[in-house]
Amino acid sequence: MGDNRVFLAPSGAGKVSEEDLADELIARLNSILESLDEDGRASIQRLIDTRVPCSSSVLDHPTIQARAGEPPTFGFLGMLNGLVGVDETSWGLISVEVDKTTGRVERFSRTSPPGSRRRSPP
Q1: How many domains does the chain divide into?
Q2: 10-32: per-residue pLDDT in tens?
Q3: Which of 2, 25, 97, 103 sits at a 20 to 30 Å CA gap from 81?
Q4: pTM for this structure?
C-alpha cells in the first residue's frame, strides 16, 4: 500500500509500516472516543466536519485527502491520512464511522476499498 515507506518506532528499535501506524492511531483515537461523553463525541464530530481552505500543493499532495472546489478544502481526517498514507486506490487508510440516523461518531476504522464489504476488526 502507499509507497511502502516505513517509520522509525519512537524507541528507534524497529520500523512501523503505514498500515501499522494507521492501526495504532485508530486504536488510540477509539480509546479517546470511548472516554468521552456525548458532548465530547459531538466536539469530535465538529472537528471532523470542519474543513479549511487549502493551497494547490495540499490538494495535490499524494497522501493528504483534500476536496477539490472553489476553494479546495481539507480537514482533520484528510491531514491524519496524510500522516499514514493511502492504499493502492489513493484512499486514505483511516475513516470514521458515523451513525446515519443520529450523526454520532461511532468509531474510527481502516478504510474499506471501494466496492468492498471488508470491515476493520473491532
Answers
A1: 1
A2: 555 567 888 999 999 999 999 99
A3: 103
A4: 0.77
Residue 120 placed within a domain: no
Q: Mean pLDDT in the chain?
A: 85
And the C-alpha cell for 25?
492511531
The verdict on residue 67 lying in a domain is yes
**Given the DSSP bridges, would you call strands 66-67 and 73-75 parallel, antiparallel or unpaired?**
antiparallel
CA distance 28 to 12: 20
The reply to whether 91 falls in a domain is yes
Q: Tell the residue number behind the cell numbers 495504532, with chain if given.
A: 24
Cα gap 53→49, rounded to integer Å: 13
Structural domain that includes position 97: 6-110
Helix pair 38-49, 76-84: axis angle to 10 deg: 80
